[in-house]
Amino acid sequence: MEFSEAKAIFMDYTGTMVAEDEPYTRELIGYFIAHSDVKDPKEVLKIVWSKVKEQESECCGDSFVGLDERTDRILQYCVENHGLKGDLEHMHDVWRKIWVHAPLFDDVKPFMERTKTPIYVLSNDDLCYLEESFKLKGIHPAGIISAETALACKPDKAIFEKALEIAGVAPNEAVHIGDSVTSDVKPAMAMGITPIYISRNADAEIEGVRVIRSLEEL
């Protein structure tokens, strides 16, 4: 399906709409290094990101917990396994600032303002943080499908099913824009939703999938 034919646009939040490498993220990594046994920023990211993905994969249905509890579990894991001895509440507070204050990429707001097709944001973050973020940034998606809305995190199909239900469209009437092959492209394709992969920092090629470097290309 061509992008112009879509009746609904689904769009990922972190990495697609907002930048991941920003001041609060760097503050959190620096604090982790200063108060743990891990001294390499790349290793910090590897440890934390793997636990984020692990928590998300286990978070479904009756086992669902919100973003704050998942974050507390990750921090406690780092206490028990990586010598983290800092102020966990402070770290959690900085992490909350990332969810809300991570800056939009320059192409996001113009894209949302000029696109007539309804845009729905899909994210594993909690609804309250997404709503606060969008209010501060002055953007107004047609809807927000958070993990708590679907009681599941991407790439679980439940969040995509909920998005289709809320948007009132069939899979072949929607496109999904995201920066992760695992969490965005593959589950969208499995649902019959047309994926668009955004690779902002490098050229990429995925067979059968449209790849863009900027939303301006759409």
Descriptive account of the structure:
It is a single chain. The protein has 218 residues and is of the alpha/beta class. The chain has two domains: 3-19 and 103-217, HAD superfamily/HAD-like (Rossmann fold, 3-Layer(aba) Sandwich), CATH 3.40.50; 23-101. Helix content is 48%, strand content 12%. The chain is globular.
Secondary-structure blueprint of this entry?
Elements lengths: L7 E5 L10 H12 L6 H18 L8 H16 L5 H14 L6 H7 L4 E5 L3 H11 L5 E4 H4 L6 H11 L6 E5 L2 H11 L2 E5 L11 E3 L6
Parallel strand pairs: 1-2, 1-4, 2-3, 4-5, 5-6
Quaternary form: single chain
What class do helices, strands and sheet pairing give?
alpha/beta
Count the E strands: 6
Low-pLDDT parts are none
Q: How would you sum up the major sheet? A: 6 strands, parallel
User: How are the strands of the largest sheet arranged?
Assistant: 3-2-1-4-5-6
Q: What share of residues is helical?
A: 40-55%
For CATH, the homologous superfamily of the largest domain is named as HAD superfamily/HAD-like
Highest-level CATH class of the largest domain: Alpha Beta
CATH topology of the largest domain: Rossmann fold
Strand content: 5-15%
N-to-C span: 13 Å
Shape estimate: globular
